[in-house]
């Protein structure tokens, strides 16, 4: 609407308590109205005297705002007629009313959006808050038990004497002291004999999966994936345009023979042999050798994600798959997200010598090394013995929390789900009756602020009974019965018989 006397500009609202000068506020709001099409080209603005009265402003304040808008081409002053919106904004109102077209994205971006939407569409993922009182999410660790005083002291040590090495960009591979500490740790804990030069620090395992997919795979390459298996890794590799070949998990781990029958020419296999995610199976020695031999025969690769290997409650875990590989076909991925804390955003990749340089070249294109300060603190945390001490304490703590939660679940929900203890990791699986829909149950629980994951979310082919992943690491022993009762009450409200 155009008015010969000038627009009323009633939408202008100035905040006199703000630190932003009034003329600047007036300028910004008129400018925004022009850009949004509310003041099309040719619109006459009120006179400065009218604005003085209506906005209770001084004339100099209004003149300062108008002068800036005129200088930038938003307004034009016509002597004897008034101040108008420049004619070049004439069609702005019509353009603003048109439905904006979505941005043009690459095929890779569209693929990632689709994959992410397919998986993260459930309420159980979108609605969870970190301070939710009843969370059984497997990724919810015992953050309250982390030795923050030790971590703070180590961090203050470096902040007190900052150096160029700590405050600078850092090496592409990551801080040498941390890579040396990791090489020593994996030799002791996982039987991996590697050099620090083969270790590359990344921002968590997810970044490692993305970089490895870009490094090793071309669109339409086939890859073996465990089914059920690691969701985030699958999405990262699928985003490269790869064809996923889902392989079942039996009592020995990933079914290599199924892979040989269905897709012997696959370019890569992804596996979690130490503790299969999410089922918890440990891959046998025979199956490990079978997988390594397959990779060597066709110059293929195996990505080993050592998921939750630190938390073993029944004896020493088997050596890593990487430690058995005499042909340099296995790539090992580790992370500090579970054993320390997720926001640290530190993980590592142990590469065969032939992949170190191309991986680092790809890494340098994508980003820099993670924060050197946090790498230095983590290196000290490992080298000074705090890391192993923390792992031992967490094993004892998590074993006690598992026992308490398991007992409460069996007593209260034993008729609704079948659940057994696990020898490693941070979650149990509650197996449900075949006729139940675990995704519907997980979503229904989330609406009542009870958060868990559905087993079927991890499956490509639905050949397993339904189930719920129930994390125990974040539930203190004294709260186990209370949280299980909250779960039971939520199930009853949903109409389930316990």
Task: Provide structural commentary.
An eight-stranded mixed sheet has the order 4-11-10-9-8-5-6-7, sandwiched between helices. A three-stranded antiparallel sheet has the order 12-15-14. A two-stranded antiparallel ribbon has the order 1-2. Helix content is 43%, strand content 13%. The radius of gyration is 30 Å and the shape is globular. The protein has 498 residues and is α/β, with parallel strands linked by helices. The chain contains 19 helices and 15 strands. About 3% of the residues have low confidence.
Entry summary:
With 498 residues, this protein is α/β, with parallel strands linked by helices. It is built from 19 helices and 15 strands. The protein is 43% helix and 13% strand.
CA-based gyration radius: 30 Å
What are the segments in which pLDDT stays under 50 over at least 5 consecutive residues?
Answer: 93-97, 120-128
Q: How many runs of DSSP E, i.e. beta strands?
A: 15
Number of helices: 19
Sheet of most strands: 8 strands, mixed
User: Which geometry do the CA atoms define?
Assistant: globular
Within the largest sheet, what's the order of strands?
Answer: 4-11-10-9-8-5-6-7
N-C termini distance: 65 Å
Share of helical residues: 40-55%
- Mean pLDDT, to the nearest integer, reads 88
Strand content: 5-15%
Structural class based on helices, strands and sheet pairing: alpha/beta
